[in-house]
Amino acid sequence: MSVGLSHFPDDMVRQQLAVHTAGAPCPFLVDHACAVHPVRPVSCRQFNIVTTTCAPDEDPYYTRRDDVLMPIANHTDRAFAAVLAFYQMENEKDIAKAVNLIRGQIMKMQEYSWKKLVKVIGRD
Q: Is the pLDDT of residue 3 over 50?
């Protein structure tokens, strides 16, 4: 299955993904704005900054956590569990394992190998 690039503003995101290293700023930031906001990852959808915008290369989750509005974990877990039904997952134990896995991966965005995504989006 091919992933379309219609939501990417230009090749800048692809270039940033190709050279991204663990701990580097988000590869989806272009001119200090999210280039994939309508299709942003769930980890980004969870957090809201409540005062000033982020400085270049800043991750406020680590630099000013008190300024990050985080959802109540129970509500987030229930939302994840509800979505899992669309993947024919109905067993409560399996759902609980999947929710724990999702929750455990959310804050690992900086550790992902975004270079793999470049290969997938390059199949257009």
A: no
Secondary-structure percent of the chain, ordered helix, strand, coil, rounded to 5: 50, 5, 40
- Distances in Å between the Cα of 88 and the Cα atoms of 2, 83, 124 are 23, 10, 29
Domain range annotation of the chain: 11-115
Q: Is pTM beyond 0.85 here? A: no
Asked if residue 22 lies in contact with residue 110, where contact means CB atoms within 8 angstroms, the answer is yes
pLDDT of residue 2: 36
Token code pair at residue 58: 């800043």
Instruction: Say how many CA atoms lie within 13 Å of 41 toward its Cβ.
Output: 17
pLDDT at residue number 4: 43
Q: Where are the alpha helices (DSSP H) in 6-123?
A: 11-19, 42-46, 60-63, 73-84, 92-106, 114-121
- Tokens standing for residue 7: 């939501």
User: Which residues, at least 6 apart from 14, have a Cβ–Cβ distance to it below 8 Å?
Assistant: 5, 8, 118, 121, 122
